[in-house]
User: Fold these one by one.
Assistant:
Number 1:
Amino acid sequence: MLIPHLGPTDFVLVWEESLAVLKDGTLEKDKSSHAIQDSHRKWREDFLSRLQAAGIDQEMVILQAKKKISYVLLSAPWSVLCYYAEEISLRVPLQMVTTPNFNWSERMLEKIKILNLMSQDVPSMPPDYYTCQFRTNKLERFLGSENKETFFKTTQRHQVLYEILARTPYGALKRGEVGIERLLSENAFSAAYPLHEVSVVDSQSLSMRQILHQYWARWASWKNYQPLDHIREYYGEKIALYFAWLGFYTGWLLPAAVVGTLVFLFGIWLMVTDVPAREICESKDEFVMCPLCKICSYWNLSSICTTFKAGLLFDNGGTVFFSIFMALWAVTFLEYWKRTSAVLAHRWDCSEFQETEERPRPEFTATAPMTLRNPVTGAEEPYFPKRRRFNRTLTGGMVIIIMVSVVLMFVVAIIVYRVILSIIIYKSHNAFLIFSAGRIASLTGSVLNLLVILMLSRVYIYLAQVLTRWEMHRTQTKYEDMFILKVFIFQFVNFYSSPVYISFFKGRFVGYPGNYYKDSQGYEKVKEGGPTQDAAPWETDYELLLCEGLFDEYLEMVLQFGFITIFVAACPLAPLFALINNWVEVRLDAQKFVCQYRRPVAERAQDIGIWLDILQVITYVAVISNAFLIAFTSDFLPRLYYRHNNDGNLQGYVNFTLGTSPSNFNANNTQCRYRGYRDRNGHFRPEYFHLLACRLAFVIIFEHVVFFIGRLIDFMVPDIPEDVEIKIKREHYMAKEALAENEVRTPVPLSRYLSVNRSINQPINQ
C-alpha cells in the first residue's frame, strides 16, 4: 500500500500494461506475456517497497482506457532531503553576491559606447550566492534555512530523488539488479522523470519554463544573448555549459566566416585575372589530353575551362593564409573558452566539482566489490581494483581497434565497388549508361556508404555502452568521458574516412599513358493527438520525448569543428556555412529542451569534459592536415616554384605541369598530354624531385610555425582570469568562517550509510 503523497512532486515513475477484452467482456492481461509481466510486477513491488522504507512519499494514479497506465508520484520529506544533501555534497547559499555578471562583448561594447543589440532584460534573474557544502548541524548558518519548502532548489530535490532511485536494488546484487536505469532498460518501467514547471496564466509572473520559451527558444531571440543563468537554474550546470559553449563557438565563427568570405572573393577576382586559367581557356586544340583510362577517349584541355576557374575559388594563395589563420583561430578559441568555462564554473559553484565534490556513481556504489578510504575527502567509499579496471579497459581498446578496422574495410570495399561498377558499365556498350557511369557509381556508392555508417553506428554505440559499464568507472564524469572517447574514435573514422580518401588519395595513383595501374572510372569534363488541456502535468510530460543526453548534440558540433579546421583549405566558405547552421541550431536545441523533451535530471559539471581534449586533438590534426593539403593537393607550391624560375610570371605554367605521352602509347604514334612531371619515357623530371623537396619542407615549416605561435598564445592567455582566482579564495575563506567553530570534520563511514539505508540496500534472493 502506498503512503499518501503530501509534498510537491519531485519525480514520476510510469509503467504501462496492455489489456485485452475477452468474450465475456472482462479485462485480462495478454496471457502470452503473462510470465514477463509477473516478473516486472514483482520487481516494481520490491523497488517501490524499498523506496517507501527509505522514507519516500508516494501516490499512485491509474488511467485505464485501451491500456492501463500507472503513475507513481514521488516526493522526499525534509529529513530525507537533508540526509542525502549531505551525502551527495549539495551546495547551499551562505551569502548573496551583489556584483553583476557581464560577458566580454557586453563590457567591450559598453567601453566603446556602442548600443548592444544583443542584450535583453530577462525577468526573474536567478540570484548569485557564495555557497558551501550542506551540513545538517550548521543549518541555521545557511540563507533561507527557515523555510523548509524552498530551501532546496527544485533541481536539487530532483538530484536527491534520482540518487535514491539509482542506488535502490530490486533483486539480486550479483546479477546487477539495481537502480531505475536497469528497470527502464528491462521495460519494467516505461519512464522516470521530474516534472516540468506548470505554466501560469499571470503574465506578470511567468514560470521559469515560460521565461525560457519567451526569451530563449523563440526564433525572434536569434540575435540575443542566451539566458545562461536561467538555463542553469532550470536544467542544471551540464546542459547550461553545453549551450554556453555552443553560443561561444558560434560567436567565434563570425571572424572566421568574414575572413573565409574575403578569401573566396579573392578567388573570384583570380578567375578573371589568373594567367594559367586564361591559357587553358584560350588553348582550344593546343593541348590534346590523353585518355584517363584504357577505355576512355582523347579530350581537349580547354574543355575544363569553367571547372578550372571554379577551382580557383578554393585553391589560391589566400588559402594558405586562411589555413594559418584558422589554425591560430582554433588555438585562440580554445584558450579563451577555458577562461569562459572557468568563469562559469566559479559562478555556478562547480570549480572543484571533479576533484573533491563528485561522488561515486550510484550504480558503482551498489555493485563495487570492496571499499577504500578516499585520500582527498577521508570518507570511506566503494572501490574497484585499478588493475582489474586496466585489464578491462585494455580489452575494450582491442574491441575498438577491431571495430575501426571493420569501418576501414567497408570504406575500401565501397571504393572497390565503385571501380568495378564503372568498369562493368563501360563494357556494357550502352551509350546512356557509359555517359553517366561516374554518376551512377558515385551515387550508389554514397547510398551504400550511408547505410553502412548508420548500421555500424547503432552496433558500435550499443557495444560502447556495454564495455563502459563493464569497465566500472567510479564517477559519472569518468564514465561519460570513456564512453564519449570510444564512440568518437569510431565516428571520427566513420565520418572522416571518405573526405580523407577524396582529399589525398582519389585519382592520384592511376599511373600515366601506356602504364595505367588500373582501369579508371573516367573524367567528367563539365503534434496533434496529444493530451487534452485538463490533463495532469505528469500525463502531459509523459507524452513528451525522452531526453537522451548531450552526446549527439556535442558530436554534431565537434564533427563540424573538425570539418571547418581539418579541411578548411579545401573550402574557405565552411566557417560561414557553420555560422548560419549554428544560429539555427541554438534555437532548435532550445525548442527541443523547452517544448519537446521531458525535463532531464539536473547534473553538475565543471566543464565540457573530454570534448575539450578532443577539440584540442582536432586542432593539432587540422594543422598537419592543412599542411599536407596545401603541399600535395594544391597548385600553390608549383606556382611559387615556377614563378621563382621564370622571372616572377606564370606564362607557360600550364605547359610546365603537363607531361607528353610515350611514343609507343598508341599505334598511330599520336602524342597527347597528361598531368604530371614526367619525360617521354615515363620517368620523373628533375622538377618533380625539386617540388617534392619543397612540399616536404613546407609541411615541416608550416606546422612548426603554427604550433610555435599556438604555444605562445597558450602561454600568454591564462586559463583562469585573475579576478576569478580572487573570488575563489574569498569563497574558501567565507566557507571556513561559516563552518569552523571548533568543528572537527570526521569522515562518514560507509557502515553508517549502510545502517541508515539497510532497508534499501539489503539484497533480495542474493
Number 2:
Amino acid sequence: MFSVCFCFSLFKECPHPDEKQRLELSKRLCLETRQVKFWFQNRRTQMKTQLERHENSILRQENDKLRAENMSIRDAMRNPICTNCGGPAIIGDISLEEQHLRIENARLKDELDRVCALAGKFLGRPISSLASSMAPAMPSSSLELGVGSNGFGGLSTVATTLPLGPDFGGGISSTLPVAPPTSTTGVTGLERSLERSMFLELALAAMDELVKMAQNDEPLWVRSLEGGREILNLEEYMRTFTPCIGMKPNGFVTESTRETGMVIINSLALVETLMDSNRWAEMFPCMIARTSTTDVISSGMGGTRNGALQLMHAELQVLSPLVPVREVNFLRFCKQHAEGVWAVVDVSIDTIRDTSVAPTFVNCRRLPSGCVVQDMPNGYSKVTWVEHAEYDESAVHQLYRPLLSSGMGFGAQRWVATLQRQCECLAILMSSTVPTRDHTAAITAGGRRSMLKLAQRMTDNFCAGVCASTVHKWNKLCAGNVDEDVRVMTRKSVDDPGEPPGIVLSAATSVWLPVSPQRLFDFLRDERLRSEWDILSNGGPMQEMAHIAKGQDHGNCVSLLRASAMNANQSSMLILQETCIDAAGSLVVYAPVDIPAMHVVMNGGDSAYVALLPSGFAIVPDGPGSRGPNSGAHTNSGGPNRVSGSLLTVAFQILVNSLPTAKLTVESVETVNNLISCTVQKIKAALHCES
C-alpha cells in the first residue's frame, strides 16, 4: 500500500521519470525496471483518457446548451411577447433592428464567449472576441455567433501536402465581414441571420471536404480501366466523410471525378473570375448557359476574396437536346490557405432551404465541388478540380448516359480542359505579337477584336439554341411530322439588333457515329470539304478569307469563309465560323453574315449590330460502355472489340418569317426537320458510316 501511494505521489511530481529515477524506484520498491516503466506508461494513458472523457463531456454539454438555446430562439421568434403588456406581439409593429436586440442581446455575451472558447479548443489557439469591434445595432452579429462547433470540427486536423498554412479553417467565422440581412417578404431578420449562419457552417464543412478530396489519393481515388481517369471510390468516401447536405435522393445516381492540369493564369486572376458570375460564364461559355449571384453573404476580408461567401444560381449544360439543363442553387466559398494557394468550393443549398415553401423539383445536387489553385514559378497555376454531383438519370437519353456516368459530360476533365483552352486564347489575344498562322492583312487590330467578339456572341447563341436555356424564351413544339429525337423550338426576335426580326425556328438532334471525335471535327471544319454536307456552299469548295488563331491547336480559330457564286448574277456569300477543340470535345459554329456589315467589323466597327443566326455541330466522345456497334475483331478472351465513336449534335437556327406576329406553318417545321436529316445523312455518307 505504501509503494502504491508513493508511486502516485511521485507521478504527480514527475510523470516522465528518466532511466536513473526508474532504477532507483525499482530498488526501493523491489520491482524490475521494466515494471516501473510500464506502470508510469499505463498511468499516463489513464490520465489522458480521463482528461479526454472530461473534455468530451464538457463539449457535449456546451453543444446541448447551444441546441436548446437555438430551439428557444426559434420558439420566441414564432411567438414573440410584448415586453410592455405581456401579450402577443405583432411582428409588423416591431422594427427589424429591435427584434434582433430583444432576442439576441439576452444571450449575446455568454454565447460569444462559449463559441470563442470552443473554437479556440478546436484550432489550438485563442479566438479574440468581437465585442469590442461590433457596432451596437449591428443586426448581422447572429451570423458570427450562430456558427456552433460543427463549422470548426476537424478543420484544424487536415493532413495536407499543400502549403495550407496554420490557420486553415480558422479566423473565418469570427472575422468575416458580413453584409446586413435584407428584409424579404415573410422572412424576419432573425430567420435570415439563422439561415446565413447555417450557410457559413455548410461552407466551412464543404471547404474541408474539397481540400481533402483534392489531396488524398488511393484508396479514395482510383484510376478507371478505360481512359485512366480518376474516379471516386464511393465506399471509401462514405467511410471518410459525413454527408453535409443529407443522403442521396431516391433514383439519383452519383458522378465524381478529379483532374489536375497546368493553366496559364495566376491564382488571383482565376479566383476573381470564379467569384464574378459574369466572368465565370465568359470563361466557360459552352458549359454555363446562365448564371447569377443571388446574394453576397461576405465579400471577403482585407480587400481580397479570402473568406468571400455568396449564393449563386446556374444552369449547366451539355450541348445536346437529349441532356436536360442542370439548374443548381449553391453556395460558393473562397479561402486563401497560403501565399499563392487558394480554394473555391461549391455546394448545393436545397436541403437547408425553408421547408414551408412548396418544394420544387431538383434534378441535380452539387456536393462539395470546386478547385484548389496553386501558383507556379513560370506564370502558370496548378489547378486540381473536383466535381461531385448527384442527378436524376431518368431524364437523360440512353445515348448520353455512358458519357455522363463516366463524368465526361459535366466532370472535372471538361472544366479543366475548357479552362486551359480559354486561358490560352486570352494569353494569345493579350500578346502584342500576332500568331504566324493568322492571315488578317485586311483586318485592323480593332477589327480583329470586333471579329472575335462577334464570333463569341455567335457561339453563345448557338449553345442557347441547342439546350433551350432561359437565355432566350423558347417554346417547344410537338409536331407529328418531326423525327422522335429532333427537338424543334420557336421564339420571336424583336428589337434585337444582333438578330434579324421575325420568327426564329431552332432544331437540334444528336446521333452516334462510328468515327473518332478528331476525325469528325477535322472533316466538318475543313472548308475544302464543306460542299459534301453544307447546302450554303453552292456545291463547291469555300475559300478562307481571314483566319484568327485562338490557341496552339490549329482547330482553335475564327475564320471568315467565302462561298463561290453559282453564276455571274449571284453575289458571293460570307460565312463567319468559329471552331474550338480540347480534351473534352469540340465545336464547329457558323453563320451567314452580311458583306457590308463584315467590312465594318473588320475595320474595328461595333459588331453588336451584325444580325446573325448560328448553326453548327458539337462533338464529344461517346463514353465508355456506349451503344457503339461491335467490330469483327475479337479480344484475346474471345469477346468482340467495341468500336469507339462520337456523339454528334447538329443544330440549326433559321428565320422562317420576318414578321414577329406571323404564325408558324407546318411547311416551315418540315423544312427544318428535313434540313437536319439531310445534313446528317450527307455526313454519314461522306465518312462512309452505316445508316
Number 3:
Amino acid sequence: MVQKYQSPVRVYKHPFELVMAAYERRFPTCHLIPMFVASDVVNEETSEDGSTIRVERRCALDVDAPRLLKRIAGVDYVYFIQKNTLNRKERTLHIESHNETFSNRVIIHETCCYSVHPENEDWTCFEQSASLDIKSFFGFESTVEKIAMKQYASSIKKGKEIIEFYLRELEDDGITHMPRWSPFSCSLSIPRPTSLITSPPTIPRLAITPAVIIPLACDEKDGALLESKQDGSVVQADSLAEILAGTPEDKLDADYIKRYLGDLTPLQESCLIRLRKWLQETHKGKIPKDEHILRFLRARDFNMDKAREILCQSLTWRKQHQVDYLLETWSSPQVLQDYYTGGWHHHDRDGRPLYILRLGQMDTKGLVRALGEESLLRHVLSINEEGLRRCEENTKVFGRPISCWTCLVDLEGLNMRHLWRPGVKALLRIIEVVEANYPETLGRLLILRAPRVFPVLWTLVSPFIDENTRKKFLIYAGNDYQGPGGLVDYIDKEIIPDFLGGECMCEVPEGGLVPKSMYRTPEELENEDVRLWTETIYQSASIFKGAPHELLIEIIDASSVITWDFDVCKGDVVFNIYHSKRAPQPPRKDPLGTHGITSPGGNNVQLIDKSWTLGQDYSMVESPLTCKEGESVQGSHITRWPGFYILQWKFYNMPACSATNLPRVDDVLATLQVSSHKCKVMYYTEVLGSEDFRTACCDVQSLGSMTSLESSHSGFSQLSAATTSSSQSHSSSLISR
C-alpha cells in the first residue's frame, strides 16, 4: 500500500532570499538532524544569466533501525538523490528527492517548494509532499514502513525549527537582508559560517545505481506544483502563488491549523489536507468546513479510506435532506417549545457550549405521538447544527479551537414509562443518525441523578453508541454530583442551573405530559412531508362493524414473546388473540364501499375465514379485552405452541338493556358519536425471543415492581389466576387512562 504525506502551507515571516541563505547552511551536513550524516554535490549547473541554479546532491542518512535489520539488509547508511532548482527570478526553490538505496524494493519520492507568499512578498511559504511504496523487503515490509513513517514524521516536525535556527544564526552574524536577483546584479553570494564547512565523515560508499521510480498517476499526485483545472486535467503551475492565492478556506496554512483546528501531528495534518483536496477535486456539492472533516478523521483514527467513506455517506445524506439549510428552514412546533425539556445554557470551563437535557421530566411517548419520529429527529438535528455554529463562535471568542460541546443530562424523574419500547426504538434511531453524521461532536456527557432504572436504559442504548463516545460519559447517582470531582470540576459555579442547586436561572422548559388531544395518526404525520427515514414504528388500522382488523404473526419457536402497544384513537374495540396450526388464506382488504365510507388513510385486513370454526380451526388464547376510546394498551403474550397467531381488533357492540331488548339512550348516543360504525387504532407489535424477554424481565424485577408506572393498571390481571407459568401462556397488559 502506498503511504502518502502532504504538508500544510508553512509560513516564514522572512524574505525568500534570506530563507534561501538559511537553507544553504544545512549543507553539507546538519548537526540538528543527527541522521543526516553527509552530502556530496554530484552536479551543479547555472543558467547564462545566473537566474537559475540546479544542484544535485547525494545524501547519506543513518536511519534509526534495529541493528539486525541493517545486517540483514547489508547496509549502514541509506543514500538519497536530491535535485534542487533555484529560480531567483521567480523566487522559487523546487526540491525533488528519491532513494537510491533499495530502489528496486522501496520507492520513496518527495517534492518540496519554497515560494513567495501570495499576499506578502516579504514572507516565504513552504510546502512538502511525499509517497512511500514498499514492494518487498526481506519479509520486513510492515516494520520498514513503520520505521520510515516515524523517521519522516520526526524530520518534518523539525524542518521549520531548523530553518528558524539558521535564520537566527544569520542575524547573529549580522546578516538581516539579502538582495534580490536582477539581470544586472552579480551572482548571489551566500555566506556560510566556517564552523559548518567541514569535511564529511568517512562513510562506506555504495556504487551509484539508477533509481527505479514508478511515476504517479496525475490524480494521485500530492505535489505542490500541480494544479487541477475544472475539466479535470492537471497542469504545471508557474509558481506556488497560483495555488496559494486566497484565504485559509482555499489552502490550509500551518498557523491556521494550530489556531482553529488544534495541535496535529504532521501525519494528521497530511490526512486532513489530502482528504480536503480530494473533496475539492471530486465532490460537486458544498465542501464541509475543515473542523467537520477533521471530526470524521478523528472518528476513524485518521484512517483516510474509512474516514472518506463515512464522510461521503454523510455528505450525500446532508444534500438529500437539505440539512445545510435546516437552521434557516426549521421552525420548532409549539409542542416542542412547551414540552421538549432541553436547551443551550452558557458554556463549560473549557469553553465548550453546554446543552442541558432534563430527560427525566420529558414525556417521550407523548412527543413521539404528537410529533412523529421525523419531526423529533429533525429537532435533534437542528440542535446538532446549532451546536456546530456555537463551536465556531466560541473558537473566535476564546481564541482556541473548540470543536465539540458538553451535554448535561438530568435523570431525576426517570422511571419505567421512559422505557416505552417504541420510544426507545425512536431514540436508538436518532442516536444512529447522529453518530453517523455528527461524529466527535460530544466532548463530555454529564449524567446526573441516575435512578435505579437507568442501568436498563443504558443496556438498551449503549451498544449503539461509539466506543470513543462512551468513554466521555460521567455518571453520578443521587447527589454525588455536588461533591468533589462533581459538577463544579466541569462547570463554573456561577452558571450551575437552579434546579441542580445553583444560582443561575435556566430557561429549559420543565416539560410535563403532552395532552392526548395533541396525538396524531401516522397518516397525518406523513402528510407533513418531513421524512428523514423511510420506516415508521406505528401502523394505523380502521375497524368497522362486521369487519375487524387482523394481524398475522408466525411463531417458529415456542415460548417466544409477542408484545404490542396500541392506542384506541376512535370508538371502542375488543382485542383478541387467536392461534391456528395452519396458515390463513392470503389477507384480504375489506371493501370500504360496503360500509358507505371512503377513508383517506388506515387499512383493514381480515385473515380468519368465515368458514373457520372456533375451537376446531383456530382457538382463543386470551380472554377478550374491551378497550375504550382514548386508552393506550401495552401487553405481551408468551406463546405455548409454534404456528400462526392472529391479533384482532374488533368493533365493540354495545350490550342491550337486560330488562328489554331495546338499547339504552346512553348507548344510542355513544353509538352516534362513532360515525358510520368506524373505529381507529394505531398499533405496534414485536416478537422477542424468550431469552431476550427473560433478561428484560430480570432487569425490571431488579429495579422494582412494574406498578411503578404512574396512572396504569393491569388490564389482563384477571388472567393470571387462570394460568400457570409452566403449562399455560402468560400475558400482561398495561392500560393508561
Number 4:
Amino acid sequence: EVYSFPGAYILFYLLVAKGRRWIQLTVEEQKAHVMRLLDALEVTDRDKRLKVARAILYLHHFIQTLFLTCCDTEVDVLHWSRHNVFLLYDMGIFTALLELLSMEIDNNQACSSAVRKPAISLADSTELRVLLSIMYLMVETIRVQTEDERPEWIAAREAFKNELGSPLYNGEPFALLLFTMVTKFCSMNAPHFPMKKVLLLLWKTILFTLGGFEELQELKVRCRERLHLPPLPEDSIKVVRAMRAASPPASAMELIEQQQQQKRGRRSRRPLVKQDSLDTYNERDPFKNDDARDEEEDPEDADSGIEGEVDPLDRDVIIQPPPPPPPLRPPTERVNFPKGLPWAPKVREKDIEHFLETSRNKFIGFTLGSDTETLVGLPRPIHESVKTLKQHKYVSIAEVQIKREEELQQCPLTLGEEEVEETQAEMLYLGMLPNLSQYVIALLKLLLAAAPTSKAKTDSINILADVLPEEMPITVLQSMKLGIDVNRHKEIIVKAISALLLLLLKHFKLNHIYQFEIISQHLVFANCIPLILKFFNQNIMSYISAKNSICVLDFPHCVVHEMPELTAESLEAGDSSQFCWRNLFSCINLLRILNKLTKWKHSRTMMLVVFKSAPILKRALKVKQAMMQLYVLKLLKIQTKYLGRQWRKSNMKTMSAIYQKVRHRLNDDWAYGNDIDARPWDFQAEECALRESIEKFNSRRYDKNKNSDYMPVDNCLQSVLGQRVDLPEDFHYSYEMWLEREVFSQPIQWEGLLQNQ
C-alpha cells in the first residue's frame, strides 16, 4: 500500500516533520504531530481522509529511512517502526480507524457500485486497503513480544488485548466486525472488500486475543489443575519439535525397479544414512523429486528413516559391514532424540469398562455395568491388565465437561445456575453463535476459491479483487509479476483461513467441548472433509516448494536496501529457499483440522474411507517434515482397520511409522480390524444425537427464556394484555396500514372457531 503514493511523503513532510528528522523530535512533539494527523482524519472530504490515512501508514513503513538517516539496518527499522506503532496506539489512532472502517463497511453507494461493475480492481478498495493495512500492522506489531520491551509497552499490549476481545465495538468484539465483512463479501453484497487483508487481520486478532498454541497449553494445564485432574503426561509441543522426519514409503513402481536391479546385480552398496528433514535442514535438498529418483537415492529408500525397520529387498546390504560414511553435519549440530516411543500411552475410562465387560462375560458370564473396581472371579492376568490400564488412564477436560453438562440437564433446580467464566473465548463464541453457520460456510467458500486444485467457475466468488490492477499487464515482466502476486495472494488466504479455523477449534474445545462440537459439525455439514482432501489431491511436493514471492519487495528489506531492477530472469529464479514455509504451515493446519473433525467420530472416519483418502494422504508423506508426517499418520491410523488386510500388508513401512510416531491406546485394535462388523456406520444417527446434545447445551446456557417449563404461568387476562411489548421504532408509522391488512381485511369465521373448540 505504500509504494503507490509519493504524495504521502510530501503530506507527512509538510504536516508533521517540518524539515526536522523524526528522531530529533521529543516524545511530546511526536505526540503533538500525531494528534494533528488524528484531527485531519475527521474531515468530511473523502480524498483528504485517504491522504491522511496514507500518511499514517507511511509512518509505519518509510519514515525511518527518510527522516532517520542513522537507521542503516533492518533491526533499526523494525525498532523505530515498533516505537511508532505504540505511539499511534497511545494517541487513539486505532479507535479512529475503526470508525472509518465502519463507515466504509456501511457505505451502500460503494457496495452497489461494485456490484454493478463487470470487473473489480484495486481502485475499488483503496481506502479499505489502507485502513486494514494500518490496523493489521498495529495488531501484529503490538502482539509480538521482543527483548527490548518497555514497561509502558507491556501495559499497552494488555490493554489492547482486552480492548480487542471485549464487546466494546457496537456491543460485540472486533473480530465479529471482520466476520461480518467476510459474510457480506461471500454473499456478493460487497465484492470490492479486500478479503486477503480482512482474513489476515481476523486471524491475527483471534491469535492476539485468544492466544497461540503455547498460551493454549498453559491454559490447558491451569484448567486441569482447577478440575483436580492429573497433569499432562508430556508437553506435546516439545515432543513434536523433537521428532525427526521419515523418508516416504516406496511406491509400487519403485519396488519393482528395486527387484529388477536386484536380479541384475546392480544394487547400490552405499551405507545407510540419516534422513534429512525440515527441522534439521542443512545444505542438502530435502525435497528431491520422488518420481524421478536415480540410483544414488537407493540407500535412502532402503532406510525409511525409522529405526529398527529394514526393507526386505535390501536386507543383505545391511548385513555386510559398510565403510564408515563421511559425516553429514558437524558433530556439534547433532540432534539428540529420545529413546523409545515419543508419546506416553493413554487409556480412557470407557476402554477399561469395555475390557472388563468382555472379561466378565468370558470368565463369569455376567457384567457389573460401569464398575471398574470389582475384580472378583477374574484370573490373575486380568488383574494385572486392569492395573496396567489404570496406570495409563487419562481423563480429558472434555469428559469432565460432558459429565457436568449431563448433571446440569438432569438436575437443573438442585444444582442451580452454572457460573460461566467470562473468558475471551466465551465472549467470542457468544457473539458468533447466532450466525456461526454463515461464518463457517463463508470461510470454506473462500478456502475453496483459493485452493490450487480449484477450477475457475463463473458463479464462484472473486477473491482477486484486491490484487488485479485496473489495466491488465502488457509486457512479459508485468505478466510474470502479476502471476506471482496472484499465486501468493491465494497462498496467504489459505494460510489465514487454515490458521483461523484451527485456532477456533482448539480454543473452543478447551472452553467447552460442545462449543467445539457445534463448529465441527458446521464444518462437516459444509463439506470441509472432502474439501481438505481435494486440497491435498495435487502434487504436494510442488506446492510445498513453490516460490511465489519477490524477496527484494519484502519489508524491511525494501526500506534499507536499494531497489534493484526487476527482470524476468530474477522473477523466474525466485529466492534460494528450497521450500515455502507459508504453504507448509497451511498444509499442517489443514491436516490438524481434519484430525480434529474425525477424532473419536466413527461416521466421519468412514467418510475418509469412502472418499478414498488413504492414497492421497500417503502421497503427503513424501514431504519430509516431522509434524506434517505425524498428522498424516494419525489420519491413516484411524482408518487402517477399514482398509483391508491387503492394504496393510502392502504398506508395512507406513504401519511401522504409525507405530513409532503416533500415540498408542493400549487396547486399540487399530492394526487388525477385528471389531469392524460390530460397529455399523450410521452417519445420520450419530450426528443427530450429537446435535441434540449441542442444542440442549446452547438452550440451557445461552437461551434468554431458559427454564421456561419451571416458570409460573400468568393466567390473568388483564395482566397479560397489560404487558409491555417491544416494537420497532417505525411501527407507529405503519400501524394503521398493518391493522387494515392483517386484521380488518382478513375474514374471521367465528362459527368455525367455535366448532373447533
